[in-house]
Amino acid sequence: MPDRQMNTAYMKRLELLIPPPLVMLILGAIMWLLPAIFPALTLTWLQRAAVGALISLLGLIISLAGIATFRHANTTIDPKRPADAASLVSSGIYRYSRNPMYLGVLLVLIGWAVYLGNMLSVLAALAFIPFITRFQIMPEERLLTDKFPSEFPAYMRTVRRWL
Which of 38, 63, 114, 148 could lock onto 152 through a cystine, CB 3.0 to 4.6 A? Predict the structure, then answer.
């Protein structure tokens, strides 16, 4: 098997493998270590704890709104089983973002990075975007397109992936 096919097969196996909350915890732990490893890249300012907490709180609210909307629609919130979706949810917060739960997690990570004050922590938080997009969101989109062949593509055209 050529290298490209092996790479594609390996990448495919990583899809939907690591639950997003675990990705968040791993990134959060890495971010926590970065100020100790690279202290020169840490900026201290008086309000960083308050600003970080506010950003994280906003992220938590957005994630919880996404979860509540899914529960109200009686559909799965299990990120490892998107094919179990009972319905396509496009109401509530899903009118503004196709992935409010992931957007909320991103904001929690950004809030954590602000609290830590380390420039590399901000980059680590932003690493969540390509990872979750490639290994979680894109596979979910393929499955939802198969499950809702007319509704989901129309929804994708009207609502952005993140914001």
Answer: 148
Distance CA 92, CA 24 (A): 24
pTM of the shown model:
0.93
Whole-angstrom Cα Rg for the chain:
18
146-155 b/e (C-beta count within 10 Å ≥ 16 → b): ebeeeebeeb
Q: Residue 26: what pLDDT? A: 97
Indicate the SS3 state at residue 75: coil
pLDDT in tens, 70-119: 999 999 999 888 889 999 999 999 999 999 999 999 999 999 999 999 99
Q: How far apart are CA 71 and CA 89, in angstroms?
A: 10
CA-closest candidate to residue 122, choices 41, 65, 47: 41
- Give the span between the Cα atoms of 131 and 82, in whole angstroms: 17
Would you call 78 exposed, middle or buried from its count of C-beta atoms within 10 A (0-12, 13-18, 19+)?
Answer: exposed
3-state secondary structure of 118: strand
Structure tokens at 87: 């319905």
